[in-house]
Amino acid sequence: MTNAASMREEAEALAIRALGFVAADPELLPRFLAITGIEAHSIRRAAGEPGFLAGVLQFILAHEPTLLRFAEETGTPPAAVGKALRALPLGNADHERSV
Q1: What Rg do the C-alpha atoms of the chain give, in angstroms?
Q2: Which of 91, 28, 29, 27 is nearest to 58 (CA)?
Q3: What whole-number distance in Å separates Cα of residue 32 and Cα of residue 27?
Q4: Most CB atoms closer than 10 Å: which of 24, 77, 89, 94?
């Protein structure tokens, strides 16, 4: 059985791939920046903040065509994105929050 730390590492890796997917898309990146309020030059710093990676996955999940394209281009089952979200800090209301 996979432990919580390993699940979180896998979820973080998937979210980082999702961030790369968004950053490489000239239509998705401006939408992501507008929705999150993050400036492009601040993404690297923001990526270290609790909840940022969960936010990336929420962005992917919020638009089915984007989710399906991400899944196809990365070979990731769409359901794996939701599962990864739940393994990340602030990915759901039950996740343990660190202070």
Answers
A1: 13
A2: 91
A3: 9
A4: 89
Q: Is 1 exposed, middle or buried (0-12, 13-18, 19+ CB in 10 A)?
A: exposed
Which residues 6+ apart lie within 8 Å of 91 measured at CB?
11, 54, 57, 84, 85
- The string over 23-51, giving b where at least 16 C-beta atoms fall within 10 Å of a residue's C-beta and e elsewhere, is eebeebbeebbeebebeeeebeebeeeee
6-37 pLDDT, tens digit each: 899 999 999 999 999 999 999 999 999 999 99
Note whether 14 and 21 are within 8 A (CB).
Answer: no
- Tokens standing for residue 29: 């990146």
